[in-house]
Amino acid sequence: MSDISPNSAHITLVKNLAAPPTNSTAAAGLLKILVAAQATGTTVQWTEVDAAAEAAQATPKSKQPFWVVLGDSTTRLYDANATVRYLYKAGTQPLADRLATEQALEWEEKTLSLLPVDKDIDLVLSAVEAKIGQLSATTTTVSPIDAVIFGALYYAVSNAKAAVLSKYVDIQQWFAQKSAAPAVAAALPIYTANVVKVLVREDPTMENRKMREDIAYVFDRSKIVLPEAGAKNVLITSALPYVNNVPHLGNVIGSTLSADVFARYSRVRGNNTLYICGTDEYGTATETKALEEGISCRELCDKYHTIHKQVYDWFDLSFNYFGRSSTEKQTEIVQNVFLKCYENGVISEREVTQLYCESCSRFLADRYVEGICPVCRFEDARGDQCDSCGSLINAAELIEPRCKLDGNRPVLRDSKHLFLDLDGLQPQCEAFVAKASNEGKWSSNGVAITQNWLREGLRPRSITRDLKWGVPVPLAGYEDKVFYVWFDACIGYPSITANYTSEWERWWKNPDNVKLYQFMGKDNVPFHTVIFPSTEFGTGEPWTMLHHISTCDYLNYESGKFSKSRGVGVFGNNAQDTGVPSDVWRYFLLSNRPETSDTIFTWSDFVARNNTELLANIGNFCNRVIKFLDGNTKYAGVLPAADAALIAPGADTIDRRLIDDVNELLARYIERMDGVHLKAGLRTVMEISSRGNQYLQEAKLDNTLFSENRAQCDTVLAVATNLIYLLSVLLHPFMPATSASIARQLNAPERLLTETFELELQPGHVIGKAEYLFTRIDEKKIDEWRLKYGGKQVKSDEEAEKPKSKKEKSKARARAKVDVEAAPAPAPPAAAN
Fold first, then answer.
1. What single string gives the DSSP state of each residue in 150-207?
2. What is the top EC class of this enzyme, as a single word (predicted)?
3. Which CATH architecture has domain 6-204?
4. Do residues 482 and 464 touch, judged by C-beta distance below 8 A?
5. From CA 489, how far away is CA 322, in angstroms rounded?
6. 3 state DSSP class of 829
7. Which long-range contacts link 52-59 to residues 24+ away (Cβ below 8 Å)?
8. CB of 723 within 8 A of CB of 689?
9. Cβ(546)–Cβ(529) under 8 Å?
């Protein structure tokens, strides 16, 4: 080609009517050529062909949206960048310029062109920003790389949101300069006339899609959510996970994941929703764990808070804010709540006989005492329970008790403690439970556990402990004590909210305009239905009270229980290590949620549900429809119109029956999710997807249907595509990444949930490209994972770190004695009299 002078020749752009440019990547190639032609003064002639009709010519052109015929009438170029090289006569450039051009073009071909321009413009622009120095910053010069990059970015930049573009000032300036260049200004009208009318998604107004803006849904974590007048304000908490270990699957499904599902559901229903959680960091368990690891309590909390956050981020939990309880706000609010209760006369003082270490000069909490079990004679029984026989123990009953901090033998002494007088608050608590459990439709085990406590009669409960790591008691004579973790833990919900927003009381002291939903394992129930509500009553203030409590029983592992110390079971970090996407884990845990009884995690069931339910049901339905719509050249990804007669109310057609059945299932889904029956809600989603697969089978969707009954084929595609769009929002609470993938494939925004099934995607809407939602898991992995997480050869962190010899124990005690810190707290208020 070196003997052909582009500036004195012409090229012919051949437009393939059988394969129009239906995506931005193909259209970008055309713009690159037009800009390069204008920049080099090359005349562009146009011609149109229907390559599909030229069956005799077995050339690649039948699949290309366009190609270029050079001035010699014999040479054809199918690659846009190759045409740009030709037009700029790259071979005659000085060597340095030629090398720079080739390197830049190679980067565009091997890096930029592979990035998801249609899906993640932020990622694309950040890549280009690194190359901005290689682009010419003038309004007159258009280099080869300018032409290529401008063409590649034109669609994305033209349709990007201002908030995204504002982060890339240099690119914005360069783009504006190039747009004003004569070559680009001349090329754009030609490009618009020949591409935009075909490339529907090129239209930034989206008018041709006829999409209603009020169905779009975006979760913006950066926005502070506050209650709104006239809105349904929903406040959601999950039990604060204790900070001394890695959460296992039972912990995840028991509280945080279940709460996340309801939070996501509430948001797509259009409710004003706040989901709050954080790590519970005070108490004896933190001090003893710090003792084991030979670090300070603060260091331990920092370590495990980070681990918890990483696990929950991987599981895609949509907290508005994930905080922690060892903060100044926690100290401030807990002390304030206590003082209000104290002033109102619901706090009393009593003496308790405890073990006292004269060497440490401190009363010992139960877990700071070890000794011989009085039941089975196990030598290392704890002060609250024997790990050997399981007996519950009073620390004073231990034979030969010893202080865990220094090994010395403690003595019995009386210690004064503060008690919350629950007996006096029982009438208010009973009235609250009767009303809230009925209106909020509490889960059955939540009601049963609460009623058992009330029937037995509430008794005063100690709210102080002889520890250093906790919220200081703001009362004279209690300088060496902190609040018991179960007095201050539930107050962690308001304090974490206070770290999220200074207007936290609009959520927590707004009983008439906020509905509080709380999620937890069944062992946490009485603290949320009896102790915390009674504490709220004790303050005399108008707190937002519990509306609905959702509880879980236990998720067991294979033939036993999860055990970090024995390396048995799957913990949060292990789930990620398997390489199985978090959505699949979410699906399995939620479909196996222990709502009314204990359930079991087994690897065989986990693999089977992925392969037979996700892959064969939802994956098959979505992929079959989207591939047919995008792969059929007569549709080319453009949604057809449904035959009005086939979908009319009362019509006796497979299409109308599908719509009616889906509406019935949709109503059932909403009812179940409103009642927080999450497992049943997910089961209904699978029923809707199965009904969609049945519809495709009844219609016999294939190329024969297209050729023999086009109206029926169009209707099936219109209805099925919209059913997939509905599935995207129904799946969102359970499998958010899958929901987002479906929205991408449909080239439609993630949406709110409407009451009825409607054809929201209108005729003329252009879908995106098909993606595989799920992949098959090889059944050989079952035995591999079962062996790996069965505890036979897995050594836990605790076992690796726990001292074994007496010498090692002595060293650890010495470290812990100096490392256990007092809670970081502001100066307590003046002591109450």
1. HHHHHHHHHHS-HHHHTT-HHHHHHHHHHHHSHHHHHHHHHHIIIIITT-GGG-TT-G
2. ligase
3. Up-down Bundle (1.20)
4. yes
5. 15
6. coil
7. 52/18, 52/19, 52/633, 53/18
8. no
9. yes
At which residue do the structure tokens 């059913």 appear? 723
Retrieve residue 377's tokens: 């004679």
Tokens, residue 332: 């401030």
Distance CA 231, CA 476 (A): 45
Strand partners, 349: 418
| Euclidean distance between the first and the last CA atom of the chain, given in angstroms as a whole number | 98
Query: What is d(CA 565, CA 795) in angstroms, rounded to the nearest whole number?
Result: 8
Please tell us whether the domain made up of 355-412 is placed in CATH 2.170.220.10: yes
The pair of three-digit structure tokens given for residue 59, joined into one six-digit string:
């050339």
The Cβ-side half-sphere exposure at 512, using a 13 Å CA radius, reads: 3
Structure tokens at 230: 């006239």
> Residue 40 has what pLDDT?
83
Tell me if the domain spanning 233-343+425-455+483-552+803-819 has CATH number 3.50.50.60: no
| pLDDT recorded at residue 5 | 41
Question: Residue 230, Cβ neighbours under 10 Å: how many?
Answer: 7
Domain boundaries, the chain: 6-204, 233-343+425-455+483-552+803-819, 355-412, 582-746
Residues 6+ apart with CB under 8 A from 250: 521, 554, 555, 556, 557, 562, 569
pLDDT band of residue 247 (cuts 50, 70, 90) is very high
Q: Is 174 left (phi over 0), alpha (psi -120 to 50) or beta?
A: alpha
Length of the chain: 833
Query: Which pLDDT tens digit goes with each residue over 175-221?
Result: 777 777 888 888 877 776 666 433 333 333 333 334 555 678 888 88
